[in-house]
Write a structure and sequence with these properties.
The chain has 520 residues and is α+β, with helices and mostly antiparallel strands. 32% of the residues lie in helices and 21% in strands. It has three domains: 2-16 and 318-495, no CATH class; 45-53 and 175-273, Jelly Rolls; 60-169, Jelly Rolls, CATH 2.60.120. The longest helix has 24 residues, at 483-506.
Length: 520
């Protein structure tokens, strides 16, 4: 069945095209604005990871010792430095001009060494006189070991009757920071950039947007637009500048200065989204605000604000964008089926549309008096060729165009029902995907390649690798990159072709075998 093989060819192309969307990876080093990874035009999703910082940050407790060496005051997590688990004391009297304090690990509040914390730290000491004026400051470096208590003692006559502060910084292990520059964007377009957690590791990010000179424009730590993010991921909204470039820095919490002061270690993704505002109230993207949009609003649990937009714009159209053929057929097919199958999954969409194609084919065969080849002139693939690919078309040109139209109508309607993809975006994108599938078929039909068994899946892989490693997947092609949908519909058709053919050959015994043996 030629149309079944066409689906598999499309799936092979789409798999590699999908890879072009998701496999953009950082090029190290990219730890600052000047070494940012430059992403090619069309790449909106990049993946990277924070490497291990090489050691954990110790969870400290600091305490001041009195004249007899006992702990008078202590603190666990009050320091403004570090990762939130560093300690600080303020306004501790110097009395005789001495500074005596100890550093231990949590939970050793008695300073007996009962802890397992380890790692480097710094203690920032600031000394004040009787009137509260700063008279001295210095830094102490230390390494806390499991079960150890580090004592620090200093004395100076200028510190008599004064006080001191001691603040611990426990985040001295340098974490990873990544910078990315997106290019080829349309100036003046609104955008949203957000960090994603692809592995569900609970990564905690901070995100900043930088201008062309490296100055910070915007910053975000924990956005709350999606409660599933648990307040750990970051999001920034803005407008693309005149040069069409966006540079972002990604680091781990609490590295607000983007210098690596964090201990995060996990994979993340950075996604830029260019919203398609479209026509207010046009929730299904068909350029008309009508009852179908209300159905989408209702089924997706829309907000009162969105309902008001729909009501205010009911009957409005985007007159400058007439829906061309064959999108009218896609629209009619989608609207005809839509009331019959609310909220179907992609698996069921594949079954429904694959079954619909089979029913149409079966009807055509019946109408032709049982001629199984009645659709071949209308739906076909390229033929064999040796030097020039032109002979591969010839009388098959009309059939190839027919296959393109049938697939465009089928998947245009399926995509519309799956996620509301506008037909005006899907059809041009599908045309590009179909051309790639056509090129893959031409590769297989070349006589020498065919002799050596170089089939179309190989050429699909070559094309996908070529695209993903050169220009990347263009943004306008993304609506038609539907790998799983193509494969599922193709499997429905090919499965029906093979299994039904065997049943028909076996006759009634074959049907009995299918009904009795298969369930067992």
């Amino acid at each position: 069945m030629a149309i079944g093989r066409a689906f598999v060819g499309l799936a092979a192309i789409a798999v590699l095209a999908s890879a072009a969307l998701t496999t953009a990876t950082a090029e190290e080093p990219n730890e600052d604005f000047f070494t940012a990874t430059i992403l090619p035009p069309g790449v909106l999703l990049v993946e990277d990871e924070f490497g291990s910082s090489g050691g954990a940050n110790p969870d400290t407790i600091v305490g001041s010792r009195g004249f007899f060496g006992d702990i008078e005051f202590y603190d666990d997590d009050a320091s403004p430095y570090g990762d939130g688990h560093a300690s600080a004391l303020y306004g501790v009297p110097t009395n005789s001009g001495s500074i005596d304090f100890a550093v231990t690990g949590y939970p050793d509040e008695f300073f007996f060494g009962g802890h397992s914390e380890s790692g480097n730290y710094e203690a920032y000491v600031t000394v004040f006189d009787f009137f509260g004026d700063e008279v001295d400051n210095f830094t102490i470096s230390g390494m806390l070991l499991p079960g150890a208590v580090d004592d620090h003692s200093f004395n100076d006559f200028e510190w008599l009757n004064g006080s001191y502060n001691v603040e611990i910084n426990n985040a001295l292990q340098v974490g990873d920071v990544d910078f990315f520059t997106y290019t080829g964007l349309t100036p003046g377009e609104a955008f949203t950039v957000e960090t994603l957690d692809p592995t569900g590791a609970g990564i905690d990010t901070v995100l900043a947007w930088f201008n062309e000179f490296g100055s910070q424009i915007a910053f975000d730590d924990d956005h709350d637009l999606d409660t599933s993010y648990d307040g750990r991921l970051s999001l920034i909204e803005g407008v693309v500048p005149e040069d069409g470039r966006l540079t972002f820095g990604v680091s781990g919490y609490p590295d607000y200065d983007f210098v690596g002061a964090h201990d995060e270690s996990a994979s993340y993704e950075l996604l830029v989204t260019i919203p398609d505002e479209g026509l207010a109230g046009d929730f299904n993207g068909d350029l008309v605000v009508d009852a179908a949009d209300y159905t989408v609003w209702r089924d997706q649990g829309g907000t009162p604000t969105e309902y008001a937009e729909w009501a205010d714009n009911y009957g409005a159209t985007a007159a400058s964008n007439a829906v061309p053929e064959p999108s009218t057929a896609c629209l009619a097919l989608g609207l005809a089926i839509d009331p019959l199958m609310p909220k179907l999954t992609e698996d069921w969409l594949a079954v429904v549309f694959g079954g619909l194609l089979l029913l149409i084919s079966f009807g055509a065969v019946l109408a032709a008096g049982g001629d199984a080849g009645v659709l071949k002139p209308w739906l076909t693939t390229p033929g064999a060729w040796e030097i020039s690919p032109l002979p591969a078309f010839g009388v098959r040109t009309f059939g190839i165009a027919g296959a393109a139209a049938v697939l465009a109508i089928t998947f245009g309607a399926a995509s519309r029902l799956a996620d509301g993809t506008p037909l005006r975006r899907f059809l041009p994108a599908f045309g590009a995907v179909f051309l790639l599938a056509l090129v893959a078929y031409l590769g297989e039909e070349q006589k020498t390649f065919n002799y050596w068994g170089l089939a179309y899946p190989l050429w699909a892989i070559v094309l996908g690798l070529l695209i993903s490693n050169t220009i990347g997947l263009p943004d306008w092609v993304r609506p038609a990159v539907r790998t799983e949908l193509y494969m599922k519909v193709g499997l429905v058709l090919l499965g029906a072709e093979v299994l039904l053919g065997k049943l028909l050959a076996l006759g009634l015994p074959g049907i009995a075998v299918a009904w009795i043996v298969t369930p067992v």
